[in-house]
Design a protein that fits this description.
This protein is mostly helical and 126 residues long. It has helices at 2-27, 32-57, 78-98, 101-105, 111-125; strands at 60-61, 74-75. The chain has a two-stranded antiparallel ribbon. The longest helix is centred in the N-terminal third of the chain and has 26 residues, at 2-27.
Length: 126
């Protein structure tokens, strides 16, 4: 169950980020550069999500050794995979959160409303 949860976690996190970026594309579709940035982040997020599924799935060979360590096996360095996945996801998350700040700041709203809207994005990041 742990192995399937790890694989599903990576897949679901990638899909959640792609859905947020698709929402950005729909809401903030005015700028060509913004569209380019969103599409680039969608591609990077999709590729990294799929790329980290394979090391997670095949972290022990043979696969049964993941839950039965009595089988002769060879496992990879889990810490290195986890840290690299965390670092890449952190960078992507920061980019996703920072992406709409410029467009929100350009809206014709009172300063209080702009700050509240930016706070909503920051709160969503937590």
């Amino acid at each position: 169950m742990l192995l399937s949860a790890q694989v599903l976690f990576k897949l679901i996190m990638g899909l959640a980020k792609v859905s947020i970026l698709a929402l950005y594309l729909r809401v903030f579709a005015a700028s060509k550069y913004f569209r380019w940035a969103c599409i680039s982040l969608i591609i990077v997020t999709s590729v990294t999500s799929v790329a980290f599924i394979f090391p997670t799935l095949f972290q022990c060979l043979p696969l049964q050794a993941f839950w039965d360590r009595s089988i002769p096996h060879q496992c990879m360095n889990d810490l290195g995979v986890w840290l690299s996945h965390a670092l890449i996801n952190l960078v992507i998350d920061i980019l996703i959160l920072a992406l709409p700040v410029y467009h929100v700041s350009r809206l014709r709203l009172q300063l209080r409303d702009k700050l509240a809207l930016i706070f909503v994005f920051v709160l969503g990041g937590l």
